[in-house]
Specification:
Helix content is 42%, strand content 18%. With 685 residues, it is of the alpha+beta class. It has four domains: 104 residues, ATPase, nucleotide binding domain (Nucleotidyltransferase, domain 5); 200 residues, ATPase, nucleotide binding domain (Nucleotidyltransferase, domain 5); 120 residues, Phosphorylase Kinase, domain 1; 247 residues, Aminoglycoside 3'-phosphotransferase, Chain: A, domain 2 (Alpha-Beta Complex), CATH 3.90.1200.10. The strands form six sheets. Strands 3-2-1-4-8 form a five-stranded mixed sheet. A five-stranded mixed sheet has the order 11-10-9-12-13, sandwiched between helices. Strands 14-15-16-18-17 form a five-stranded antiparallel sheet, with helices on both faces. The longest helix is centred in the last third of the chain and has 30 residues. The protein binds adenosine-5'-diphosphate (ADP), 2-acetamido-2-deoxy-1-O-phosphono-alpha-D-glucopyranose (GN1) and magnesium ion.
Length: 685
Amino acid sequence: MNYCIGVDLGGTNIAAGIVDLHAKKIVRKASIKTNAPRPCEDISRDIVALCESLCASENLSLSDMKWIGVVTPGIVKNGVVISASNLGWNNDDFAGILNRLTGGNTFVANDANAAAYAEAMWGAGECAGSLAMITLGTGVGGGIVVDCEIVEGSNGFAAEIGHMIIDVDGRKCGCGKRGCLEAYASATALVSEARRVAGLYPDSLMWQLADGDVGKINGIVPFKAMARGDKAARLVVDSFIKYLAIGVSNVINILQPDVVCIGGGISGEGERLMRPLREEVERLSFGTKEHRSRLVAAKFRNDAGILGGALLGMQEELAKMKNDARELLSHFAIDGDVVTAIPYGNGHINDTKYVVVKKNGIRHEYILQKINKNVFKNPAELMENYDSVTSYLREIIKKNGGDPERETLSVIKTKDGANYHKDSEGEYWRLVNFVTDSMSYDKVERPEQFYDSAVSFGNFQYLLKDYPAETLHETIKNFHNTPDRYRQLMEAVERDVCGRLSEVEAEVEFCKARREFAGTLEAAHAEGRLPLKVTHNDTKLNNILFDKNTGKALCVCDLDTIMPGYSVNDFGDSIRFGATTALEDEADLSKVNFDISLYELYVKGFIEGAKGGLSEGELELLPIGAMMMTFECGMRFLTDYLSGDTYFRISREKHNLDRARNQFKLVSDMEKALPEMRAIVKKYS
Ligand code: ADP
Ligand code: GN1
Ligand code: MG
């Protein structure tokens, strides 16, 4: 099991959450009151009891958890809380006490440092070499992460960004000194300024938004009032942003991090805060247009502490990963030292790591993958495909005036000139360039993204239209042969190796009722209506890389299954994954609905991207392709569930069953929507 617990100890509440380290999310959380100040021993006992009850509510026990990571306010060094005034602690061996109570494997860190760590690992700063985090809350917290390590300083006091002095003899700060950033840019400071200014402007909209009660003016009120044109509110927000920008600019001038991340409740204002802040910071800090720290709002707000706590236990695993990556990369024709190696992406098949190598002070980013031997029986042949196709694409992209470094992947050769490395345990590893400043999505966030991905996949087929199909190895036999997938399911039903059949009878019946449908595309092919082409065969949204800065689709990745196939299946696989209102593994089927407007966008993009390359027969069969891939994928998940989850990576019990049910729900929706789906294709053909 890949679960651990993250605990966010605050002055008022203790929040704990079970975190799924694969899925990078909180499975369940709970909280209790802190009742501070109290001795470390007492609070520790409450934390352990909270963790135990949290586990029990998931039918788990503490021993199922890989570790417990706790974040706390105050200064922490080597697990000892040197001082935490809210809790009333001084030199308390917090980690020592927690280890004694739980039998070991607990980690402790400062809360803002851990929040920075969460953002750097899983959040808005993923893949940033360096990140500075500023959280705007009761106080102003700070955290710095460089190459996936928290910067603590010699004594644990590092990154106290809130106590940077920005005004000599200025406002009094809670720390006893004067002029600290915290006295100007915390949520507390914003609120008290808003209340003061409201007092000077009786007509201000802020009064109306607070029901005439000054006590109800919170941090959001001035932003809201400003958006509606209120002058007094603008004064408050402008001055808040001015001071915050001074703090941010000072951080940038000292550290020049790749990313500055703004967290805390106020960061929920999003662009209303970030845009003017960016403008002001640009004016005040050093940097050029192309070389500037990226200023972003945090991804995690209330959950940053729990996630940061959970991630604390990863540090040792990451150190091991780094060593392993160092050994593996020594076989490839690159040099430099590995500074980062972290798990990356949400693929179900390969073991994927993001790796950074530094040479002469320059960072080079790579994707290192262990090829799944259980899925791909002949990795050497697979790599032959991969290498030839990417080389072919690179030439075309160059000819078209594109950027081959970012629009396709490049295989890095080993020192012996091979396109993979086989380790002493017989595992196959490949190294490819990481597409700089790229990211992928598991769910459509903006409709244009889905349209863009459609153009990319359509164009991908177009680019490979003259590729010699006969030279490609079949990396998985009968990969999208739906009747064969049906046969495999019936075999799994027959065997029922895990005794799970009784649980899935309805799903099996669902498939049996569609046995004939399963053969539709094979029949169309036999009748000459559906040609074999060089296709991608795994066209889900997260196999497209988007530019982090422009949001535009850049590059098609995951080239393991490029083989002769049907264009309509590439279309269909994207629809099943993307044209839906939920994630692929959403278990609450009331949230899973086929989204016809996303379908329409994809149709438009795919046809455009294919540049006239789709025949009439193919166009006509696009809607069937969508239903087919959804049905087939559901059957594959169900087969894997019955067979004991040996194919797709899972991170919870019944994960594959949830996925299968999810896909079957979409199939039912599409069956109803078929006439409309056909009409949409006609409209764009
Ligand atoms: P899997 O077969 O397990 O899905 P992928 O090759 O798709 O493995 O890799 C997993 C994820 O890693 C992708 O979905 C994508 O988000 C990311 N990824 C893969 N290759 C690259 C790359 N070269 N540059 C940037 N991101 C990549
Ligand atoms: C797998 O490798 P990944 O995660 O991109 C699978 C696809 C499935 C998909 C379901 C080689 O894709 O065929 O449609 O999961 N890839 C392979 O999400 O089996
Ligand atoms: Mg993938």
